[in-house]
Please model this.
Amino acid sequence: MTRKRLDDLRASLRDDALRRGINPRDVDLLLSDLLGRSVAYLYAHGELMVDSAQLDARLARRYAGEPLQYIRGHTEFYSRDFLVDARALIPRPETELLVETAIERAPAHGRVIDIGTGSGCIAISIERERSDLHVLSVDRSVDALALASVNKARLESRVMLAASDVFSGVCGTFDVIVSNPPYVPLSEYEELAVEVRIHEPRMALTPGPAGTEVIERILDEAHARLEPRGCVILEVGYGQEEAIRTLAAEKRYDVDEFLPDLAGIPRVVVLSAHAQPR
Ligand SMILES: C[S@@+](CC[C@H](N)C(=O)[O-])C[C@H]1O[C@@H](n2cnc3c(N)ncnc32)[C@H](O)[C@@H]1O
Model:
């Protein structure tokens, strides 16, 4: 057993992390998991003696490029703690804008569908904030649905889960159709950081060469699935605004708004169907 003072251990591990291009904060978070204490507690209790051996395997995974969230097994999204693992995409902070927009837009007691639910983070957050809504979560990946089902139980959510390729496995109409679909074009997928490309599910990231394949299917099929004053709310990729505006016009939708994320990137689009089909 190697016992070291916490402040000495932290200092050497943080230096090591920096040298390897890893954020030293990751060391603090893994140490806080090990001790079952907050990061603030680590700062205040440098005199503690700690057995660092248990940290070695976790740090080795991090240094090999595995995302911190998969190693820790959970992450925060919209102020709730979601379990995460390689079965689904890690929830991203910018996706909270999609949730916020859906919460604002959904009519009282409305029906909402989340297409490509992954960990369930969008659907569960919407339902937990707006318990009047009826929220259905679908995904093509049964592995992702299994993870979403664990999150649903942990967070005591009433969302319904179903396996479905876009709308193919569900019936009925919706007031809000929300989705953070896979939107990375195949050529850009090959360029993604190894951390993302090797560890996160490919199906969650790229739908094909154009990047808009799943978005196009949602827009084609949503005409038959939207209530008269309903809307489609989508997260889109960096640089996709023009392509989405063109697609929306071709597929007979009005762009109600395009919302920027905290980095100023147009990230969430709200679409409503043209009143009369041409
Ligand atoms: C970008 S991830 C989003 C996951 C989660 N909603 C989030 O925001 O973190 C896209 C999700 O869409 C799912 N997906 C991909 N193609 C699909 C399709 N044709 N029909 C339904 N879901 C699909 C993937 O399995 C993945 O879980």
